[in-house]
Amino acid sequence: MNILVILKMVPDTVEELNVSADGKSLDSEFLRFKLNDPDEHALEQGLILKEKSGGKVTVIALDAPEVDDVLYTALAKGADRAVKIPVSQAGLGTKATAKVLSDFFSSGAGAVTPDTLVLVGTYAIDDLEGELAPMLAVHLGLPYLGVVSSVAASDHGLIVQKEFAGGLRGEFEVELPAVLGIQSAEKPPRYVPVAKVRAVMKSAKIDEVEIPAPTDTVCLDVQRSYKPEAAGRAEIFEGSPEEVADKIVDALAKSGVI
Amino acid sequence: MDPVKINLVGMPGIVCLWILTVLAFGVFGWRVSRLIKLIRQGRYEDRFDNPGRRLLHALKHVLLQPRIFNERAIGLPHFLIFWGFVIYATCFNWNLLRGLFPFIPIPYPEELRIVGLFLEVFSVLVLISLVVAAGRRMFFPPPHLHLSFDANVILVLIGLLMLSTLFGSGFRVVADGGHGSAWAPFGTLLSKAFGSVPPESARRLAIGMWWLHMALVLAFLVYLPYSKHLHLLASPFNVFFSQAATRPVGDLTVPGAKEDMSAGASRWQELTWKQLFGGFACAECGRCDRACPATASGHPLQPQQIIQKVKNHMVRYGLEGADGTVPKLVGEVIREDEIWACTTCMACMSRCAVWNEQIPLIVALRRHLVSQGQVEKNIQDMLGNLQRYGNSFGKSDRMRAKWTQGLPFKVKDARKEPVDIVWFTGDYAAFDPRMIEITQTTAKLFNLAGLDFGILYEAERNSGNDVRRVGEEGLFEMLRDKNLDAFSRVKWKNGTRIIVTTDPHSYNTLKNEYAFPDGGVVVRHYTELLDELIRGGKLNLNRRLSGKMTYHDPCYLGRYNGVYEPPRRVLAALGLELVEMPRSRDKSYCCGAGGGRIWMEDGPNIKERPAENRIREAISLNEVKTFVVACPKDIAMFRDAVKTTGAEGKIEVKDIAELVAEAMNVEDRKPV
Amino acid sequence: MAKSILVLAEQLRGGISDITYEMLGAGRAIAQALGVPLEAVLLGSGTSQLASSLGAADKVFVADNPELDLAAPETVAEVVKTLVDKTGADIVLVGCTNVSLGIGSILAARSQMPLVNFCRAIKVDGGGLVCTSQLFGGKILSDVKLADGRGIIGVYPGAFPIEQGRSDRTPPTEAIDVSVQPSKIRFKQYIEPASGDVDITKQHVLVAVGRGIQTQDNVQLAEELAQALGGAVCASRPVIDQGWLPLTRQVGKSGMTVKPRVYLAFGISGAPEHWEGMQNSQCIIAVNTDPKAPIFDGAHYGAVADAVELLPILTEKVKMRKG
Fold first, then answer.
1. Which one of A15, A120, A147, A186 would you mutate to disrupt binding with C, by most C Cβ within 10 Å of its Cβ?
2. Which has more confidence, B112 or A121?
3. Over pLDDT 90: what percentage of chain B?
4. Which residues of C touch A17 (CB under 8 A)?
5. Which residue among B184, B323, B609, C143 is least packed, with the fewest CB closer than 10 Å?
6. How many CA atoms does the CB half-sphere of B360 hold within 13 Å?
7. Statement to judge: residues B452 and B517 lie in one domain
8. Are B340 and B198 found together in one domain?
9. Residue B594 pLDDT > 90
10. Segments forming the whole domain that contains residue C304
């Protein structure tokens, strides 16, 4: 199986997010980037699939701060090839990102073969224009399914599980080639020790594939961005743990459950 | 009466002795050389530095054996057995030389009256010790003492050697006319029992005893290398080569390593030769198991078993060449839950009488697991956080100095303003909401003492002490390098460059493992600093506290670095009466947090967590209401344990800085 | 000037999802402001009957075709696109739910309409619309202007009240003929969550635990409080993913939607995916060490404290109060 995993860098929400002076975009001063969570699961699912059914895993990312670390880490985890497209991810909407990636597939550096499976995180926290996986699927003319939490190879392609709600899942049969949006891998993403990543940094190389930057970076007109107002903010109980517990018990009594 | 001048099995005695000797020494030498070849398959580690200090260390701990005496019942008997053995070994060699080379103009040892007397007296003392040792094994075996067949063999053998000496003396007295002598008191005593034996027969029996004695020792020589009693040959070398002889035990660096050690050991050949050698020195006495908090809590770990399993595995597949698939060292020979149970508290190593090093061995096995990504989810998350944010709390590094916001003064940024002292706060003191108040209190004390100190703000990273002990060597190196880089940007005032730490774990790694490039840095724990400040009159204690308290020695401060007195002096200066727990100082009982355990799950079979056991120990001291600690992780662990043991109201866990602040009325004072 | 608004109604196993009513309510408000009709499209087997509950729409297009049950997103997107081309609808509302995820994006990629995702509020502004989207895990809101009033809006579950999308009237329906192309994605079967566990949707009191509970052992502390209160324990996704509690206890997007009288959240930061599943609880009490945790923005009562420390104390106090 030719497994391609798209890795996207997103702002790290552990850091304080501020809106910049233009009132629309994020202030880049304190911004740090990290791999989008579901993308990490997409990589893990790709690696699990490779271990179980064979194949090759290629990870692909657009340029962003700290992206090299992420790509090397993916190689250390077991990916076979890492590709960086030197088009900046910053300020790029989902549509434009999907366009750049589909250009990559038609560039000769990454063709869609009959056994191609493209794995993408099912959503990203900055998907204002839509999710990447379905948009890429349209560009590539491939079938798409999202919110996937398990993928296994079968005679006719893949058997995948999609999450609905309330713990209910659905099993689907998917023919290759296809694009899947991964919610979570079968197992939590593996840990790779720093020494291994460092060794990979010395021995492996990240392929850079030049793709023309898109002319339209975003298709939406953001007028204003802001932090949510603390309008419905909770009444905060102060004091020692004992005092706080007393107040919570009062609140429980007031709502009639004790 | 020369014992070799007789005919045995149709040959002159001297020829028999030569044959026996060459055979015995030949087999012994061949066996020892195989063992040396075996351990040389391990990885190289330089334990040949500073031979002078090593020799002194070995002499002290081999000849005087202070660690044997940490268990009183067996201390003196072992000491006597050891010295009896040394003397007998000397006399054996003397006998052997005299027997093999009759032209040497010296008498047999027994023929010197003073030596004879000495041998007799010692034989009796050794026999008594043997009775004690056998009685202990049969009737009062301490837990974790390995009751092996080997052990019984040696006791019987030593007994026979002693008896052959005494009986030989007795027969000699009869042969010499039965008058006896004050130089052979026990021989004389025994000779009364042999009164009916004719002198000639007695002479032959005396010679028989000599031969029996020699033959037993030569047989023992053959038996020794492949038995657990290799201990008596290997342990002096083990002590000589021990890390503690020349370096702090709190340093996990492998000096002179020729390979990358960061991936640890998946096969026995990937351990260092010293780690392999330790198994031969182990006497299976169980001191380490009895000291181990993981063992006591019901974890599957027994430090002695780790050493023994490695040895047996190596012997089986490296020496005996057993057939079949070699079981995996990590996972099969030694289970993962054994490997993860260790709190790296150093109790085992500081108790071991042959100075074995269990912790570096366990860390080598952990490194292999980490290299394979076989790490429990909590630890994975923690390591991921440390990689990304430099702290185990997964908070932004920019929040590290947030605790300073509640202070009435500004804490200097040591990277921007000149300082005398850099305070390395550590993760728990800076991020744990339960700790922040104490950290602020400590800052106020430093401020009132007029210290010119600063912190590294967001540049400080987790020190990596526990990361290294979890087995993530690469991450440790990354954190260490980042911290060293931050320290290199510190604007020091002229004068002593002091780094003070709150956390004993950080203290250990900064002091012993960081190898500050310019060397001119002194690392201090805050208890040491408070002690100096109080003694120097820099902290005015205007109120004497009263009452009884007990003090818990943190593993990484006490056992690892020998800091026992400074915190005690501080407490005494405050006016508090210190009641020591039964296990204090180097016998202090771990809280269970070290070596990354604070981030791990306790399995379902845990009988009693170490911290709970410790709190119960403190409560059993009468009228002690305060449990004083000097480590942020201790605050977390013991405050939890107070709740889970239902000891709230009975005892309160306090940081030493809080008590100093009470004695100074810190809250009423204006900051400097 | 806009022509009409189309809501892609969502149904799963023959039941209309809440999101459908939420979208109908939101759509009704815009439709009124713009003076255009509100239409809905409902796909799948048995939908001719189901359509009667969508009375908030002026008209419901129905494709009662079993082949459309859990059809591939591209198939559904194709049906919607054909309908948009036919009716000239210029605003399409699609739910940001697991079931519908991706349909809006495919539609946006195939048509000339832009998509505004994760939308929590919609305002009419002149001839256009201003949509408020929730980004970065709920930490930032962005107002996006659709100047010509054309676009696909991904509606975040729980953002709009359900009541306003319900109606007693029976809407006019129009059957649409859909020829379903064979798809490369075929639904095989449902995988039910393990049964036999407590049904957390039926509890009056829920004690919920999140990442802040730290260890599996600590889940027991929550269990004890739940017992004292006569309720049950539930959790956010990280706790379920660790395997500390079964899937049946998950609250949020992929888990259950609960509405207990009291929801006690311990060590839960309040990511949108979790909030979605518990926001309609009558009383939310949140305990978290981070004073900036988003959960405090929506909870009724809060305490900045360590859940592990507070839980046993609270359990004791509850027992004392109950006598």
1. A147
2. A121
3. 69
4. 136, 139-140
5. B323
6. 25
7. yes
8. no
9. yes
10. 200-322
Q: Are residues C11 and C63 in the same domain?
A: yes
- Tokens matching residue B500: 């003070």
Residue of C211, C217, C311 to mutate, interface with B, max B Cβ within 10 Å = C217
Host domain of residue B297: 239-371
The alpha-carbon gap from C215 to the nearest alpha carbon of chain B, in Å, equals 6
**Neighbour subunits, B (≥3 Cβ pairs < 8 A):** A, C
Task: Write out the E strands in B544-656.
Answer: 548-551, 577-578, 626-629, 652-655
Average pLDDT over residues B489-509: 93
User: Could you tell me if C44 and C167 lie in one domain?
Assistant: yes
Q: Do C102 and A184 touch (CB under 8 A)?
A: no
**Is any Cβ of chain A less than 8 angstroms from the Cβ of C198?**
no
Q: Is C185 part of any domain?
A: no
Residues of B in contact with A37 (CB under 8 A): none
Q: Helix B377-389 crosses helix B473-488 at what angle (to 10 degrees)?
A: 30
**C145 pairs with which residues across the strands?**
A221, C130
Residue B109: pLDDT over 90: no
Domain count, chain B: 4
- Does A251 contact C at CB distance below 8 Å? yes
Q: Is the pLDDT of residue A232 over 70?
A: no
Interface test with A, best of B260, B396, B468, B480 (most A CBs within 10 A): B396
Assess whether pLDDT exceeds 60 at residue C1. no
Contacts of C20 (CB under 8 A, 6+ apart): C7, C9, C10, C11, C40, C54, C95, C165
Alpha-carbon gap: C231 to the closest alpha carbon of chain A (Å): 9
Q: Which residues of C171-197 are buried (b: 16+ CB within 10 A; e: fewer)?
A: bebeebebebeebbbbbeeebebeeee
Contact (CB, 8 A) for C302 and C286: yes
State how far residue B300 is from chain A, nearest Cα, in angstroms: 25
Domains of chain A, first to last = 2-208 (3.40.50.620)
SS (H, E, C) C242-282: CCCCCHHHEECCCCECCCCCEEEEECCCCCHHHHHHHCCCC
- Tokens encoding C181: 């192309």
Query: Cα separation of B222 and B32, whole Å?
Result: 10
Give the pairing of strands A169-174 and C185-191.
Answer: antiparallel
Is A237 in contact with C147 (CB distance < 8 Å)? Answer: no
**Look-up of token digits 């780094």:** B499
Helix spans in chain C (H): 18-34, 47-50, 73-87, 103-110, 216-229, 237-241, 272-278, 295-298, 307-322
**One domain for residues B328 and B410:** no
Window A:126-155, CB contacts with C under 8 Å = 126-131, 133-135, 137-139, 143-147
CA–CA distance, B348 with B341 (Å, rounded to integer): 13
Looking at beta carbons, which residues of chain B come within 8 Å of A16?
Answer: 396, 398
Task: Say which residues have a Cβ less than 8 Å from residue B50's Cβ, sequence separation at least 6.
Answer: B245, B246
Q: Does C102 contact A170 at a Cβ distance shorter than 8 Å?
A: no
Collapse the DSSP code of B94 into the 3-class scheme (helix H, G, I; strand E, B; otherwise coil) and give the result: helix
Q: In CATH, what number is assigned to the domain containing residue B346?
A: 1.10.1060
Tell whether pTM > 0.80: yes
Chain B: closest CA distance from residue C292 (Å): 12
Say which residues have a Cβ less than 8 Å from residue B524's Cβ, sequence separation at least 6: B498, B499, B500, B501, B507
Contact (CB, 8 A) for B211 and B3: yes
Pairing of strands B453-455, B412-413: parallel
DSSP-derived secondary structure letter, C202: G
Q: Find out whether A26 and A128 touch, Cβ atoms under 8 Å.
A: no
Q: Choose one of B371, B406, B425: the last residue of a domain.
A: B371
Hey, what are B143's tokens?
């837990």
Nearest by CB: C102 against A144, A219, A251: A144
